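Entry 14. Structure prediction run on the chain below.
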Amino acid sequence: MRQNGPMSILEPSTKGKLLLATPPLEDPNFDRTVILVLEHNEGGAVGVVLNRPTMEVDLDGLDDWVEIVSPPVVVFSGGPVAHEALIAVGRADVRTEEAWSVISGDIGTVDLSVSPTDAAPLVTGLRIFRGYSGWGPHQLDGELAAGAWMVFSAETDDPFTTDPTALWRSVLRRQGGRTAWIADAPDDLSAN
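Output returned:
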C-alpha cells in the first residue's frame, strides 16, 4: 500500500527472491516465467528469467566460462531488455569480491571479464543470460500490488536446475496447499 506524496517502497525488497508470473500474464515475454531478482530498490528492479533456455551454446571469448556452465549448457534468455548484454549468475563457496556481487547467500552475479579461476576457484553452479528483465522506479511494486507476480523464496539450486522448463510448476508445487494447485493450470485457461 502506498502513501500519498513521494512514492516509496513499503514492501520489502524482492532481491534474491523468485518472481513467478501469474497465469495468464498478458505479456508473452513473461508468461509462466520464473525470475530471479538481482536487485530491487527505489531506482527499480532487475532480474533474469531462469526458465527460458535458448539454443545458443557458443560465446566468443568466454570459452573458459562456458566450460563450467551448469547443464543444460546453453545461454538463457534473461529477459526482453538489452539482448547484447550478458549476465552470469553463479554459486561458489570461495570467491573474490572484485568479481562477484552477492545476491543472496552463496549466489551472486559474476564478472565475466575475469577468468573463472580468478573469480571463483570452486564454482558449483553457473548460468549465463542474454538480456535481462527490468523495471523502472516503483514499476515492479505496482505489478506486485496488482497481483501480476507471486513472490517466493529461492532455493539454492533454482538458478541452476537441470530441468529449467519445469521450474515454474516445480516452484509452485513445493509451496503446498492451494498455491500448489496453480501448477496444474492448463497453458490455455479457456481449455479448463
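The helical segments are 63-66, 116-119, 139-145, 167-173, 177-181.
Filed with the rest of this week's runs.
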